[in-house]
Specification:
The chain has one helix and nine strands. It has a four-stranded antiparallel β-sheet with strand order 1-4-5-6, with helices on one face. The protein is elongated and about 105 Å long. The chain is of the alpha+beta class and about 200 residues long. It has one domain. A hairpin with a 5-residue loop joins strand 8 and strand 9.
Length: about 200
């Protein structure tokens, strides 16, 4: 005559609880890792979109600029954190070239140590208007230190997060080389830079 046993022993119950705890902990870790990866991917996508949009705006503006209107004309290794220009609108009935209002793309420092890319039309005039193209531009370009040396090997020295160098060679079209660094803090609290090099030939 056999006696049936109902329920679990204490050892069996402890084993079941332990297994359940391990499975739950593993599921939480997988879920947390997945959420972190999604958050990081979203951050990186936003950062790259900002760098692409800013560089596209700069490129389009300079493609429409008159080569003779560029100011200042500074070549590497110095460069400049601003560039003023005018668009060529066409010619009047007498054949005289007509230019648009002056425009300027420039880097401006913020109190928190970062900076912005600003586009200004009619600078220093009554109808001056300024738009922010990016608000995450560092004081120095990616990999650059304020030491008088070309640390990041881009032929510019101590350049800010936005830097212009004008290549003005005899017999060749004038070119503008632009270096842009967008820098934001990632979800893990670490600096995350995205850099662009823009080369524009001014044909006007």
């Amino acid at each position: 005559m056999s006696v049936s046993r109902a329920g679990f022993t204490l050892v069996e119950l402890m084993v079941a609880i332990t297994i359940f705890g391990l499975v739950s902990a593993n599921m939480m870790m997988v879920s947390k890792t997945g959420a972190s990866a999604i958050k990081s991917e979203a951050f990186r996508s936003t950062l790259e979109d900002e760098a692409n949009l800013t560089s596209t705006r700069i490129r389009r503006a300079l493609l429409s600029a008159s080569a003779d209107s560029l100011d200042p004309v500074i070549q590497a290794p110095l460069g400049s954190d601003h560039l003023q220009y005018q668009m060529t609108l066409g010619a009047n009935e007498e054949g005289k070239t007509i230019y648009g209002d002056p425009e300027r793309i420039h880097w401006a420092a913020d109190p928190d140590g970062r900076g912005r890319v600003l586009w200004t039309t009619s600078p220093a005039l009554d109808d001056e208007r300024t738009l922010v193209w990016s608000s995450a531009i560092p004081n120095l370009a990616q990999g650059e230190l304020a030491n008088g040396i070309d640390d990041n090997e881009n032929l510019l020295t101590d350049e800010t997060g936005l830097a212009f160098a004008v290549h003005d060679q005899e017999g060749l079209e004038r070119e503008v080389e632009v270096y842009l660094t967008v820098l934001r803090i990632d979800p893990n609290g670490k600096p995350a830079p995205s850099q662009r090099r823009i080369l524009v030939t001014c044909r006007n």
